[in-house]
C-alpha cells in the first residue's frame, strides 16, 4: 500500500489538515515538500469522500530574526518587528507578503488547493483571543511542560506570550511578566535576544486583537485547539526530540487537553549527503526547481519515497534529473505504489506522458529545425525543462555544437577511421533514406572495416563535434548533412 494511504488508514470522521511556513526568506525547494505531502493527504481523503479541509498558513506574525544578505543593510532596523508589519523590500505590502507571494505562485503551479491564511490576520481579527486568554490562565501548566522537556526550572514571571512594544514596534524584544486577567505587564528589553535591541520601556496592555503573539510552539498547539486540526506533519528540523513539534504535541495533550493531530515527520533533501541550505548556496530554490522539473515531476519527487527518507537531490549530479523523468514515465505505466505516486502527482487531470526519454529530448533540443518533431511527439512542454537542464545542470558532455572547421580532436583519428568516414559513411549518406536505418548500419559497416563500434562512433563525433561521444550519430549526420559530407571528405583526403 502507498505510504500516504497507509498513514490515513485509521483517520475516521471529519478531518482538518494544517501546514504552515514562515515567509521570511527565499522559498527553498525543501519548503515545498510539506505543502505537497499535506496536499497529497488532502487529495486521498477527498477521494474517499471524507469531509476534509486543508489550511495552509503564512506565519507572518513571527518577528524578523535574521535577514537575507541582500536585505541586511536597509532592513536591519526591522529586526524584531513582526514580518507582517515590516515593509516589503519592493514597496508592495509587507515583508511577509514579499516572500509569501513567491510561495503562493509556486503552490499554485503545484496544484495545491489549500485555503490560505495569514497568521497575523488571525491575531488582528481576534481568532486567537480565546487561545491567548487560555494560555495566560494556564501559564503554569505550560511552564511545567517546558521545564520537563528542557530539564530546567521555569520562573513564575515567565509567560507564553510576547507583546508588540507600543514604543518601538518590536515583538522579539518583549517579555510578559504578569497577567491580571485583563492586561499583561511587559518589558521591552535591550538584551533579550542577540539579533535585536529593545527600547527598555515597561508597561501594561490588553493582549488581545493583535497586540500580542503566543510563543511559536505554544501558537502551534493553539492552532490545533482553535481550529480542530486533526492532521499536521513537520519537517525534520522541527520534528526531532525536544524540537518545536515535539513541544507543541506535548502542549496539545497536557495543556490544551486535546487529541494530538496525526503526526509524521519528513526528511530533508540532501546534496552529497549534506542538508540543502539556500544561505550556503547548496541546493535549489523553489523557483529554480520548477524551471527544471514540471510541477507533476516535482510533486512526484516529493512523494515517491516515504517522507521520513532523506532524498539525495544534487541537480548537477550527471543523471539525477533525467533519471527522475525516467522514473516518472515508468510510474505512469506501472500498476503498483509507484503508479499511485504518479496519479497523486498530477495537477489538473492525468497528463499524457511523453514516450521519448528526457535524456534523448535533451539532445533533440540541441539539433536545428526540430520544432515540428517536438510538436508531433507532444514534447513541447517538456522541451523547455530539458533546455533549462542542458543550460544549467547537465554535465558538459551533454552539450554539443557542430564545429565550423575540422576539430583539433579529429587529428588523432587513425588512418582506418579517417577512411571509414570518407569511403564508407560519406557515400552512404546519399543512399540512405532514414536515419534509423543508417544508425543500425554504422555497426555493420564498422565491422566490415575492422573497426570496433566505439572506434567508428569516436570518428564521427570527433570529426563533427570534437568530442568522444554525443547524440545519436545518424541524427547528427542527417541534421547537418552538408557539413558532414564536406567534413568526411576533408578528413579522408
Ligand atoms: Zn520597545
List the topology elements.
Layout: H1 3-7, E1 15-21, H2 33-47, E2 52-58, H3 72-75, H4 95-109, E3 115-118, H5 119-124, H6 129-137, H7 139-150, E4 161-163, E5 174-179, E6 184-188, E7 202-205, E8 212-214, H8 216-227, E9 234-235, H9 236-239, H10 244-254, E10 265-266, E11 269-271, E12 274-275, H11 286-292, H12 295-303, E13 311-312, H13 320-332, H14 337-343, H15 358-364, H16 371-376, H17 380-393, H18 415-431, H19 435-448, H20 453-464, H21 473-479, H22 481-492
Parallel strand pairs: 1-2, 2-3, 9-10, 11-13
Antiparallel strand pairs: 4-8, 5-6, 6-7, 11-12
Helix pairs in contact: 6-8, 7-10, 8-10, 13-14, 15-17, 18-19, 18-20, 18-22, 19-20, 19-21, 21-22
The structure holds zinc ion.
Instruction: Supply the CATH superfamily name of the largest domain.
Output: HUPs
Rounded to an integer, what's the Rg over CA atoms? 30 Å
Helix content: 40-55%
Stretches where pLDDT is under 50 for at least 5 consecutive residues are: none
Number of strand segments: 13
Domains, number:
4
* CATH architectural label of the largest domain: 3-Layer(aba) Sandwich
How does this model look, in words?
The termini are far apart. With 493 residues, this protein is mainly α. It has helices at 3-7, 33-47, 72-75, 95-109, 119-124, 129-137, 139-150, 216-227, 236-239, 244-254, 286-292, 295-303, 320-332, 337-343, 358-364, 371-376, 380-393, 415-431, 435-448, 453-464, 473-479, 481-492, and strands at 15-21, 52-58, 115-118, 161-163, 174-179, 184-188, 202-205, 212-214, 234-235, 265-266, 269-271, 274-275, 311-312. Helix 6 (129-137) crosses helix 8, helix 8 packs across helix 10 and helix 13 packs across helix 14. It has a 3-stranded parallel β-sheet with strand order 1-2-3. Strands 5-6-7 form a 3-stranded antiparallel β-sheet, with no helix packed on it. It folds into 4 domains: 3-129 and 216-268, Rossmann fold (3-Layer(aba) Sandwich); 161-214; 270-398, Arc Repressor Mutant, subunit A (Orthogonal Bundle), CATH 1.10.10; 408-492, Orthogonal Bundle (Arc Repressor Mutant, subunit A). The radius of gyration is 30 Å and the shape is elongated. Zinc ion (ZN) binds at residues 165, 167-168, 170, 188, 198-199, 201.
Amino acid at each position: 500500500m502507498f505510504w500516504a494511504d497507509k498513514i490515513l488508514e485509521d483517520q475516521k470522521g471529519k478531518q482538518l489538515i494544517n501546514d504552515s511556513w514562515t515567509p521570511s526568506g527565499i522559498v527553498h525547494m525543501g519548503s515545498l515538500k510539506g505543502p505537497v505531502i499535506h496536499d497529497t493527504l488532502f487529495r486521498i481523503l477527498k477521494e474517499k469522500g471524507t469531509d476534509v479541509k486543508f489550511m495552509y498558513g503564512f506565519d507572518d506574525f513571527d518577528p524578523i530574526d535574521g535577514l537575507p544578505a541582500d536585505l541586511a543593510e536597509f532592513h536591519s532596523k526591522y529586526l524584531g518587528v513582526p514580518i507582517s508589519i515590516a515593509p516589503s523590500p519592493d514597496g508592495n505590502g509587507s515583508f511577509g507578503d514579499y516572500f509569501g507571494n513567491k510561495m503562493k505562485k509556486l503552490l499554485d503551479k503545484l496544484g495545491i488547493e489549500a485555503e490560505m491564511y495569514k497568521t497575523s490576520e488571525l491575531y488582528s481579527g481576534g481568532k486567537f483571543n480565546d487561545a491567548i486568554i487560555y494560555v495566560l490562565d494556564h501559564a503554569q501548566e505550560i511552564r511545567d511542560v517546558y521545564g520537563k522537556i528542557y530539564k530546567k526550572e521555569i520562573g513564575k514571571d515567565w509567560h507564553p506570550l510576547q507583546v508588540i512594544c507600543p514604543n518601538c514596534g518590536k515583538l522579539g524584544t518583549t517579555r510578559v511578566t504578569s497577567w491580571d486577567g485583563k492586561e499583561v505587564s511587559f518589558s521591552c528589553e535591550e538584551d533579550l535576544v542577540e539579533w535585536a535591541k529593545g527600547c527598555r520601556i515597561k508597561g501594561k496592555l490588553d493582549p488581545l486583537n493583535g497586540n500580542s503573539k503566543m510563543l511559536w510552539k505554544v501558537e502551534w498547539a493553539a492552532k490545533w485547539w482553535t481550529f480542530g486540526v486533526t492532521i499536521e506533519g513537520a519537517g525534520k528540523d522541527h520534528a526531532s526530540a525536544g524540537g518545536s513539534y515535539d513541544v507543541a504535541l506535548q502542549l496539545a495533550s497536557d495543556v490544551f487537553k486535546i487529541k494530538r493531530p496525526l503526526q509524521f515527520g519528513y526528511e530533508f533533501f540532501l546534496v552529497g549527503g549534506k542538508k540543502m541550505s539556500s544561505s550556503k548556496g547548496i541546493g535549489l530554490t523553489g523557483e529554480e526547481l520548477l524551471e527544471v522539473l514540471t510541477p507533476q515531476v516535482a510533486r512526484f519527487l516529493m512523494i515517491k519515497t516515504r517522507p521520513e527518507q532523506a532524498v539525495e537531490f544534487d541537480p548537477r549530479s550527471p543523471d539525477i534529473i533525467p533519471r527522475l523523468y525516467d522514473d516518472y514515465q515508468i510510474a505512469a505505466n506501472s500498476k503498483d505504489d509507484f503508479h499511485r505516486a504518479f496519479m497523486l502527482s498530477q495537477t489538473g487531470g492525468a497528463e499524457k506522458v511523453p514516450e521519448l526519454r528526457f535524456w534523448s529530448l535533451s539532445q533533440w533540443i540541441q539539433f536545428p529545425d526540430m520544432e515540428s518533431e517536438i510538436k508531433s511527439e507532444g514534447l513541447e512542454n517538456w522541451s523547455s525543462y530539458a533546455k533549462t537542464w542542458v543550460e544549467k545542470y547537465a554535465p558538459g558532455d551533454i552539450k554539443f555544437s557542430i564545429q565550423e572547421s575540422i576539430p583539433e580532436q579529429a587529428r588523432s583519428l587513425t588512418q582506418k577511421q579517417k577512411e571509414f568516414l570518407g569511403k564508407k559513411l560519406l557515400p552512404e549518406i546519399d543512399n540512405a533514406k532514414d536515419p534509423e536505418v543508417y544508425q543500425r548500419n554504422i555497426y555493420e559497416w564498422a565491422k566490415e572495416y575492422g573497426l570496433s563500434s566505439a572506434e567508428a562512433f569516436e570518428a564521427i563525433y570527433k570529426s563533427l563535434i570534437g568530442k568522444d561521444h554525443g547524440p545519436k550519430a545518424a541524427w547528427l549526420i542527417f541534421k547537418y548533412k552538408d557539413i558532414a559530407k564536406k567534413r568526411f571528405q576533408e578528413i579522408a583526403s
